[in-house]
Amino acid sequence: MGEPPAGPGAGEAPLPKSAGESPPTPSPEPPGSSERRRARWADEAFGAFALAAAATLVALPVLLVLIVGQDAQAAIVRFGPAFLIGRIWDSNLPPVTFGASTFIAGTLETSAIALLIGVPLSLGGAVFLAELAPDWLRAPVASVVDLLAAVPSVVFGLWGLYVLVPYMRTSVDPFLAKYLGWSPLFAEHAGSQSGASILTASIILAIMILPTISSVSREALRATPDSQREAALSLGATRWEATRLGPLAYARTGIFGAAVLGLGRAMGETMAVTMTVGNSDNFASSLFDPGQTLSSKIAINFGNAVGLERSALVELGLILMALSLLVNVVARLLLRSMTRIGKAGV
Amino acid sequence: MRPPKRRRRRAKSFVLLGLCAVAVLVMLAPLASILYTCFVNGAGAITPSFFLKNPPQACNPAAGAPCPQGGVADAILGTLLLVGLASAIALPVGILGGIYLSEFSERPLARPARFLADVMTGIPSIVIGVFVFGIFYFVAQEGWISTFSAVSGYTGAVALAVIMIPVVARTCEESLRLVPTSIREASLALGIPRHRTIVRIVLSSARGGVLTGALLAVARAGGETAPLLLTAGFTTGSIFGLSGWTPSLPVLIYQFSAGGEPNTTQLAWGAALMLVLMMLVISVGARLALRNRFGGRTT
Amino acid sequence: MVEHLNAWYGKTHAIQDISLTFPDKQATAIIGPSGCGKSTFIRCLNRIHETQPKARAEGRVLLDGNDVYQEDPTEIRRKIGMVFQRPNVFPTMSIYGNVAAGLKLHGGYSHDEIDTLVIESLKKSALWDEVKEKLDQSALQLSGGQQQRLCIARALAVQPEVLLMDEPASALDPISTARIEDLIFDLKHQVPVIIVTHNMQQAARVADRTAFLYLGKLVEIAPTRDLFERPAEKLTESYITGRFG
Fold first, then answer.
1. Strand pairing partners for C196?
2. Is residue A73 domain-resident?
3. B258 in any annotated domain
4. Dmax over Cα atoms in chain B, in whole Å?
5. What is the CATH number of the domain that holds B97?
6. pLDDT (tens digit, 9 = 90+) per residue, A138-177?
7. Which of A111, A197, B172, C116 is the most exposed place for a label (fewest CB within 10 A)?
8. Contacting C residues, span 101-130, partner chain A, CB-CB under 8 Å
9. Is the distance from CB of A254 to CB of A232 less than 8 angstroms?
10. Does pLDDT of A37 surpass 90?
C-alpha cells in the first residue's frame, strides 16, 4: 500500500487535497547549504504548527471545565449540594428554587430502559451477523445496520414525534396498561395519555444506540478464535450452546464495554429525547408520564434563561458531563482490557 | 432419559438462534420506517421554492388568505456557512493534531492530548453548546467584540468546530498509523526533511483514510442540532453573514416539528429528507471509498 | 471404521476416498507431510469439519455399526471426543467448570455424579495432583502443558467412546510433550485413541498402528513397527527416511 518514497526532486507524490495547512515549503529549492537551513527551518515551523494543534486538543477540555464551572458557580454557591436532590424548578415564585433530581432521574431512567431494550436486540443481531450469517449476507446487512448511526438525532426526533408517539398513544401504552397496569410503573395518570413519555423517549434512545452496541459487540464476537467454538462443539454442544460457551463467554468484556458505551450515548442524547419525552418538570412516577432529562431541560430552557436560572442550567450540563465522562471512561477501560486479553491469546 | 433432553436442547438452539435472526430484522425496521416517512411526508416539499424561498410568515387560511408554500433557503445557506466555517477551523487543526499524535508520539504532549481528545468525543454535544456559548457570552460581556452577539453564526460555527476537532484528530491519527514505518524511514534515509516526509509521503499515503474521517466529521457536524440551538439560534428571516441568529436545517426541523403554521411541518419533513439523504450518501460514499482503498479491512 | 470418506474445502478435494479401520484398545497414529489432509481427516470423524464455511464431507464413518453421518452431530461429538492442536480452555471458566462443561451441557447428571466424573477425568489426564487445591481458579492460570491436559480431561469427562487428538503436543515444550505422550500411552487401554502428528518419533513412541497419508490419499496403514521398519510402499519409505516432507 502507499506509494514508493519519492526522491527529493523527481516524481514527487501528489499533494493530498487536504494539505491546505501545510507550511510554506521552499520550492523550487535553492542548492547547497541554504537549502538545508531552510529545510531545518521548515521542519521546525511544521513541528510548531503540529504542537499548536496538539495544544488545542489539550486546551479545549481544560477551557471547557473552566468556562462551564465558572458559569455554574452562581447556582453551585446558591444551592449547594441540595441542588442534586431538589425536585422543584421554579423561576417565577420568589424565592426562586432550582433542583436537578427530576432531570437526573429522567436521564438515568430513560438510558437504563434504553439499555434494557437495546442490549438484547443489538446483541442478538450481533450474534446473527457474527456467527450465523453467511459471508455474502454479513457485510451488507452490517453496513445497513450501521447506517442507522448516520441519521441525525433531530430526524429521529421528528420520526418519533409523528410515528412513534401516536403509535405509543393508540397501541403500545394501552396494551401495556392493560396487562401491567397493576404495577405503578405502568399506571395511567391524567395527562399521561399523550404518548410522549419517559417510555417513548427510552424506545427512541434504544433504537439510537443499536448501531453502537451492535457494531462493537460484533467486533468482539468476531475476535473470538475458532478454537473456542470448536472446543464447545467437540463436547457435543448444539450450535446455540457452542455460541454461548465460545464467543459469548469469550467476548463478554467487550460486549459489556459495548453496552456501557451505548449507555454513554444514551445519556448525552438531546434532540430526539427532547421531542418525545413530553417535557414535564414534574417527577414521572409512571413510565407513561411525561418527563424531562438533563439534556432536554437544557435544550428547552437555555434560550430564554437569564441570571441564576441559566447558571442552574449550566450546572445541569456539568452533572450531565460528569455522568457521561464516568460512563465513557468505564467503557474505554473495559474495551482496552478486552484488546489486551485478545492480544495475549488463549 | 437422554433422547428427549437432546431434542429439547436442539429446539432451544433453534429458537434462540432464530430470535437472533429476528433481532436483525427488528434492527433494520426503524431505518426503513424513517426513510419511508421522510419520503412520504417530505418529498412533496421539495420544489424550486424549497431552495429559493424562506418559510411563510403567519397566515390565516380560515380567513381566505392562502398560505404560500415557502422554503428553507436561508436554513440551507446557514447550514452551509456554519459547516463551512467550522470545517475551515477544525480540519486544519484536527489534521495537524492527528499528525502530532501519530508522527510526534514520542513527545510529552502526545499522550495527554490523545487522552483528552478521547474525553472530548465522549462529552455530550449539548454540553459543548453550553461551553461555547459561555465563551462568547463572556467575551461579549467584557466588551471585546461588538459586531455580533453571543448567539450568532460565529458561535455556532465554533461549537461545531469544537465537536469536530477531536474526531478529526483521532481518525487522522489512526489512518497515519496504518502507514508502515518502513516508508517513513525510506524517505528520511533519502535525506528528505521530516516535514516533507510527513506531508508528501505519510499523509499522502494515508489520504484516503484522512479524507474519509474528515468527511464523516463534516457530515456529523451537518446533523448536529443541540449545540446550534444554544449557540446559533434560529430565524425565519433572511441572513446576512454570520453575525446574527443563523438558521440551519437541523434547528429548523426542530422548530417546525411541533406544527404551527400549516406548511411548516411539511418544510420540516422536506428538510429532514434532504438531511438524511445527504448523511446517507456521505456515509455510504465514505464506506465505499475506505473499502476500495483498504481492500475490505474495515468492518 | 471408515469407508470411502471424501472431504472438500471449497473446491479443494482434501480427502480422497479413504477407508480404514481403527481397532479397540489401541492408539493409531496418522502421519504425513503438512497439508496432506491428516487434520481434515480426523475432523471428519466427529463431523467438526463441516462446521467450517464451505467445507463438506461424504462417505461413511461407522461407530458401533452406526453411521456417524446419519445421526445427530451433537450426540456424535459427545461419543467422539477431540483434543486440538493448541490448548483451547474456556477462559472465563474455572478449572472445575472447564471439565464439567460437557456434562452440564448434556444434563442428566446429579451434582455428585459430576463431581465424581470431574475428579476421575482429572486423574486420568494426570492433572489432579497439580490442580486439586485450586479447582475454582481460572483455567488461564495453568501452563500451556497443563491447559492441554485440562482439555484432555474435559474431553474425557463426557465418557467418549473414541478420543481424537489433532497434533496435541505441537504447541508444547519437550517436557510437556513427554507427559502428554505418557498419557496417551495409558489412555489407549481405556479408550481407542486416534492421534494426528507430524512427528514420526512421536508416532513410533505412542501408536500401535500408523497410517501414512499423502495428498489426501491413504498410502499405507500397518502396525507401527512394520510401517517404520518394512514399509510396503516406496512413498512411505522415502517419507520416513526424510527424503521429503
1. C30, C166
2. no
3. yes
4. 87
5. 1.10.3720.10
6. 888 998 998 898 999 999 999 999 999 999 988 888 888 8
7. C116
8. 101-102, 105-106
9. no
10. no
In a domain, B3, yes or no: no
Q: Is residue A7 part of a domain?
A: no
A246: closest CA among A273, A228, A233, A222? Answer: A228
pLDDT at C206 over 50: yes
Q: Which residues 6-25 of A have a C-beta within 8 angstroms of C?
A: none
Q: How many domains does chain A have?
A: 1
Chain A neighbors (3+ CB pairs < 8 Å)? B, C
Closest chain C CA to residue B10: C74
What's the Cα-to-Cα distance from B290 to each of B248, B286, C124, rounded to whole Å? 29, 6, 54
What sign does the CA torsion over A289, A295, A299, A302 have? positive
- What residues of C are in contact with residue A228 (Cβ under 8 Å)? 88, 90
Q: What does chain C look like in DSSP terms, one character per residue?
A: -EEEEEEEETTEEEEEEEEE---TT-EEEEE-STTSSHHHHHHHHTT-GGGSTTEEEEEEEEETTEEGGGS-HHHHHHHEEEE-SS----TTSBHHHHHHHHHHHH----HHHHHHHHHHHHHHTT-HHHHTT-TTSBGGGS-HHHHHHHHHHHHHHT--SEEEEESTTTTS-HHHHHHHHHHHHHHTTTS-EEEE-S-HHHHHHH-SEEEEEETTEEEEEEEHHHHHHS-SSHHHHHHHTTS--
Distance (Å) from the alpha carbon of A195 to chain B's nearest alpha carbon:
14
3-state SS assignment for residue A90: strand
Q: Tell me the sheet residues that pair with C211.
A: C30, C221
Residue range of the domain that includes A293: 104-302
Q: Is residue B61 part of a domain?
A: no
Cβ atoms within 10 A of the Cβ of C70, count?
Answer: 9
Q: What's the angle, vertex CA C205, arms to CA C204 and CA C210, rounded to 5?
A: 35
**Taking the CB of residue B57, how many other CB atoms lie within 10 A of it?**
11
Q: How many domains does chain B have?
A: 1
Report whether A128 contacts A138 (CB < 8 A). Answer: no
Is the pTM above the cut of 0.90? no
Choice among A230-239, B52-61, B196-205 with the minimum mean pLDDT:
B52-61
| Cell representation of residue B188 | 528520511
Contact C105 A237 (CB under 8 A): yes
**Cα separation, B2 vs C108, whole angstroms:** 7
User: Cβ–Cβ of B193/A39 closer than 8 Å?
Assistant: yes
Contact A246, A229 (CB under 8 A): yes
Q: Whole-angstrom Cα distance, residue A174 to residue A166?
A: 12
Contact C40, C13 (CB under 8 A): no
Q: State whether B5 and C74 contact (CB < 8 Å).
A: no
**Model pLDDT for residues B74-108, shown as the tens digit of each residue:** 899 999 999 999 999 999 999 999 999 999 988 88
In a domain, A257, yes or no: yes
DSSP letters spanning A282-317 = S---STTS-B--HHHHHHHHTTT--HHHHHHHHHHH
* ipTM given for this complex: 0.89
Is there a contact between A20 and B120 if contact means CB atoms under 8 Å apart? no
Q: Where are the beta strands (DSSP E) in B86-207?
A: none
Q: CA C66, CA C44: separation in Å to the nearest integer?
A: 15
Per-residue pLDDT of B165-193, as tens digits, reads: 999 999 999 999 999 888 888 988 888 88
Phi, psi for A192 (deg, rounded to 5): -110, 20
H or E stretch at A88: none
Q: Which of A43, A51, A58 lies at the smallest CB-CB distance from B116?
A: A58
- C-alpha distance from residue B36 to each of B30, B249, B272, C10 (Å): 10, 19, 12, 41
Domain range holding B274? 73-294
Residue-wise pLDDT tens digits, A230-263: 999 999 888 899 999 999 999 988 899 999 999 9
On whether residue B287 sits in a domain, the answer given is: yes
Q: What is the domain-level CATH number for residue A123? A: 1.10.3720.10
